[in-house]
From TrEMBL:
Residues that coordinate or bind substrate: 56-57, 78, 175
Name listed for the protein in its UniProt record: Acetylglutamate kinase
Entries under Gene3D superfamilies matching the protein: Acetylglutamate kinase-like
Enzyme Commission (EC) number: 2.7.2.8
Pfam families: AA_kinase
Catalyzed chemical reaction(s): N-acetyl-L-glutamate + ATP = N-acetyl-L-glutamyl 5-phosphate + ADP
Main location: cytoplasm
Gene from which this protein is expressed: argB
Family according to the record: Belongs to the acetylglutamate kinase family. ArgB subfamily.
Residues annotated as site: Transition state stabilizer: 24, 241
Major enzyme class: transferase
Xref: SUPFAM superfamilies: Carbamate kinase-like
């Protein structure tokens, strides 16, 4: 992903250089109503413009199982046949998205729930079949996100809440990983706002020992990341998350943090929070 051309925007009435937080929450937080409630309260209390992106893979897997549909993941991506697409559309675009919006409204935040199809905000292309057929999984089309339109929504007082559904512009909905959506939005909006991308999940951040919450790694640069991969300190879902995170840093996003959803309030109090990703020294 390249940094977007923003010269035309600087001359418009939009608001360059304002702070924007793009925060993504994962399935384990969404699945726990207490954690979700706590997180949404802290999210609401953050100053500046905000966008929330949510996954919900865990809930979708459970719902699919209830309906007798088996879930298959390959390299952290869901094989999405037509039945599975129906389930994820209902779960991400409906159940989870609308519950989050309703809770934010209760806290006085004028949230508006969106898929990538709404407002044509995020266009994707069905992943081509190579060795694996992922079905209706969408890869975001480069430069397809229009940051000005999203900015207008925020300037009008709305807080966009994006789920993990995109579209191809030809009438087809697609399932797109929420970490990737958050990173693509952050890159696109970083020309208009001082953008901080935050991945919130159930652990304190990237840990040296996944079973020891006290082993938090405070800072990682790309070189350190390569070493951590070789040592297998980082694995499974954390790999695509960090790949997305470093892409965002390389493409102009001011800061990327990976931390615990329960600790988000520390950011407002200027206390250390999670693992901060940096460029190579
Ligand atoms: N070094 C690490 N520190 C923390 N988590 C790690 C690490 N390596 C792998 N993980 C795994 O990555 C997971 C987070 O990725 P994922 O499940 O995709 O997140 P999300 O809930 O945001 O979708 C954690 O639950 C943990 O099991
Ligand atoms: C293509 C693909 O894999 N999409 C993801 C979208 C949801 C997601 O990203 O949820 P978490 O953040 O909770 O993992 C999926 O269906 O699991």
């Amino acid at each position: 992903m390249n940094k977007i051309d923003t010269d035309h925007i600087k001359t418009s009435n939009l608001s360059p250089d304002k702070a924007l937080y793009i925060i993504k929450i994962g399935g384990n937080v969404i699945d726990n109503s207490e954690n979700l409630h706590h997180f949404l309260k802290d999210f609401e209390a953050l100053d500046g413009f905000k966008i929330l992106v949510h996954g919900g893979g865990k809930v979708a897997t459970q719902m699919a199982e209830d309906l007798g549909i088996e879930s298959k993941m390959v390299d952290g991506r869901r094989i999405t046949d037509i039945e599975t697409l129906r389930v994820v559309t209902m779960v991400y675009g409906g159940l989870i998205n609308k519950n989050i919006v309703a809770q934010l409204q209760r806290f006085g935040n004028n949230a508006i729930g969106l898929t990538g199809a709404d407002g044509n905000f995020i266009k994707a292309v069905k992943r081509p079949v190579k060795t694996i057929d992922y079905g209706f999984v969408g890869d975001i089309v480069k430069d397809s996100i229009n940051p000005e339109n999203i900015s207008r929504l925020m300037e009008a007082g709305f807080t966009p809440v994006f789920c993990a559904i995109t579209h191809d512009g030809e009438g087809q909905l697609l399932n797109t990983n929420a970490d990737t959506i958050a990173s693509a939005l952050a890159v696109s909006l970083s020309g208009l706002y001082e953008t901080t991308l935050i991945y919130c999940f159930e652990k304190k951040g990237v840990l040296k020992d996944i079973d020891d919450e006290e082993s938090l790694i405070r800072e990682i640069n790309p070189q350190h990341y390569e070493e951590l991969k070789v040592e297998r300190i980082i694995h499974s879902g954390m790999l695509p998350k960090l790949d997305n995170a470093f892409t965002a840093i390389a493409c102009g996003v001011k800061a990327v943090i990976i931390g615990k959803s329960d600790d988000l309030g520390q950011l407002k109090d200027n206390k250390p929070f999670g693992t901060r990703l940096t460029k190579n020294a």
